[in-house]
Amino acid sequence: MARKKIIAGNWKMNMTPSKAVELIETLKPLVKNDDVDVVFCVPAIDIIPAVEAAKGSNIQIGAENMYFEEKGAFTGEIAPDMLTDAGVKYVIIGHSERREYFAETDETVNKKVLKAFEHGLTPIICCGESLTQREQGVTIDFIRQQIKIAFLNVTAQQAAEAVIAYEPIWAIGTGKVATTQQAQEVCKAIRDCIAEIYDEATAAAVRIQYGGSVSASSAPELFAQPDIDGGLVGGASLKPDFGQIVNYNK
After folding, report:
1. Greatest Cα pair distance in the chain
2. 25 is catalytic
């Protein structure tokens, strides 16, 4: 069975609650596409109004982060059941900005992945290399390490439900886009790695997104690749152009 494309917007630290509702109302008619799962990953304070605004549409709401403990003295963090109770379906885990600015590690990413599955949340697990790593020719080795640690103690059944987002760090918010061939090469390597950890059936089920300055013009060619199952979209998800990305196939 063909994998259904999943196109998610990562709003990052943008949009107040009222602005979030306005944007969702604007985008609702523009992102209709039954062939694609559409997800808006929004700031924590926007989640509840976003879930309400998205009701009756094909938009599902995701979170941008989550902690790996159930509750406790972790000021400023969001627990998994807070997300599920609010109506969240997806959660981004291990984005390069979380790793760079907030000291997240492969090990904490793994803890969050396990906790997300425990609560029925679908993790969007991020991986990606720096410009130096690409120039030194260690991209595939580095990505494989990130994937292997992220999926430690994850069952095959859980892994098949996961979403992996390959985002070359050097292409996030820079206007640079990996060539279609570069993106496909790494996404295939990720699928091959999942096959090694589990089996071919699990690897065939996992959905792998490309992220990093995805635009309406680059989306059709990227999403046509055999191992690219959609995109994790940053800045363009805050604009009406996001509708063109979602409807890349029309």
Report:
1. 49
2. no
Contact partners, residue 65, CB within 8 Å, separation at least 6? 44, 78, 91, 92, 93, 95, 98
Q: Could you give phi then psi for residue 127, rounded to 5 degrees? A: -145, 160
Q: Dihedral (C-alpha) 134, 181, 9, 1: value to the nearest 10 degrees?
A: -130
57 backbone dihedrals φ, ψ, rounded to 5°:
-115, 180
Picking from 242, 229, 236, 240, the residue whose alpha carbon sits closest to that of residue 36 is: 229
Question: Roughly what angle, to the nearest 10 degrees, separates helices 17-27 and 47-54?
Answer: 20
Q: Which of these, 105, 111, 233, lies nearest to 171 by C-alpha position?
A: 233
pTM for this prediction: 0.96
Question: Active site includes 167?
Answer: yes
- Cα angle, residue 50 at apex, residues 55 and 113 outer, rounded to 5°: 100
For residues 147 and 193, is the Cβ–Cβ distance under 8 A? yes
Please provide residue 123's backbone torsions phi and psi, each rounded to the nearest 5 degrees.
-80, 140
pLDDT: which is higher, 250 or 18: 18
Residues 37 and 5 sit within 8 Å (Cβ to Cβ): yes
| pLDDT range class, residue 171, cuts 50, 70, 90 | confident
> Between the CA of residue 168 and those of 1, 128, 202, what are the distances in Å?
28, 4, 24
> Looking at 97, 104, 129, 167, which residue is catalytic?
167
* Residue 166 φ/ψ, nearest 5 degrees: -90, 115
* Options 95, 97, 104, 129, the catalytic residue: 95
Closest residue by Cα to residue 113 from 74, 73, 77, 146: 146
Rounded Cα distance, 133 and 113, in Å: 25
CA–CA gap between residue 241 and residue 22 (Å, rounded)? 15
